[in-house]
Amino acid sequence: MQQLEALTKDALDLGGGIIALSASEAEAARQLQVCNACRYCEGFCAMFPAMTQRLMFEKADVHYLANLCHNCGACLHACQYAPPHEFAINVPQVMAQVRGQTYKDYAWPPALGKLYERNSLVLTLALAAGLALFLALAVAMGGGLWNSAVSGNFYNIFPHNLLVGLFAPVFLFALLALGMGLRHFLRDIGPATSGASATTPAALEATSAVLQLKYLDGGHGEGCNNEDDKFTLSRRRFHHLTFYGFMLCFAATSLATVYHYAFGWQAPYDLPSVPKILGTVGGVALMIGTAGLWYLHRRRHPLHGDLAQKPMDLGFIALLFLISASGLALWLGRATPAMALLLCLHLGAVMALFLTMPYSKFAHGFFRSAALLRYAVEKRQPKSALPGAD
């Protein structure tokens, strides 16, 4: 083990001009050196073929590979050098630690990167509850918190322009912050992944991998691992329900915006209108998906990920569940005196999502998509262009 560490240090010293690695990045580089010599897990996911393209692992390489890792756990159960072996190889755990660091390092504005460490389950739900309480107090002061006279139309409680004025700036800032962080990430990993520009075939391949969650099948189609060494497709299925449920809800909101401004058709909409169908199906799928992910996350093997990030993960899952559940409850209770209270709860949860979006687990989808795009670009380049090529 000492000889391996000495050889790794010598290889890094020969590189010259290398940016210093953090403790988690250095540990990731050490483990990748061992994996690169073994290559038993090469067929599991995109991270391992990308790893074999390298002889050395600098900061950009480690960040890139960490975001290619889907944290499925298959390589841990297959590894002959996993703990208690002296090499102590645990790729899912160290990659999760590095991913958490990349979210903080590329946060924009940089000063807000610390929010990743504080975005816990309790804080996330407290923020949603606090915002809902603020809105409820505002409505109560107007005498309409439990009022059958305003039931059926939430614009009687919060005018449309007021909602746009409250939510649009926060949402646009969240998109700007995510976009700036992603831009800096791609700028850093671009040269480390051949530097070539993305082509249409590469973009289509990356998009397909994202939409299918391709690398949660374990590389053999039977799925990955959760609490033990048994393969399961549960994580992939619940991720699909969560992702597509969220996208259907977003599509419903976007279409409702078009209805409002282009045709003058104001909400609320009833079945069988397209926005209502999209929102209902999306809300149910999102509830099932997040409930399933919560269950699986609580049962996951402790060596599969970074325990320090567990509160952030659970907070994000809980917030998505709260949004979907409160949205469906608002629809079902729209004609009751409870509508105003349900509306405040739903709007508080949505605002909490917007406020935490750039500094929560929401960001991982953007960074992983970017890494998959660079992988699709890099794999199309001549292997001889990289020092670690076969």
Automatic annotation (TrEMBL):
Signal peptide: none
Protein name per its UniProtKB record: Tricarballylate utilization protein TcuB
Source lineage: Bacteria, Pseudomonadati, Pseudomonadota, Betaproteobacteria, Burkholderiales
InterPro entries cross-referenced by the UniProt entry: Citrate_utilization_prot_B (IPR012830), NarG-like_sf (IPR036197)
Bilayer-spanning residue ranges: 121-146, 158-178, 241-262, 277-296, 316-333, 339-359
Keyword terms, alphabetized: Membrane, Transmembrane, Transmembrane helix
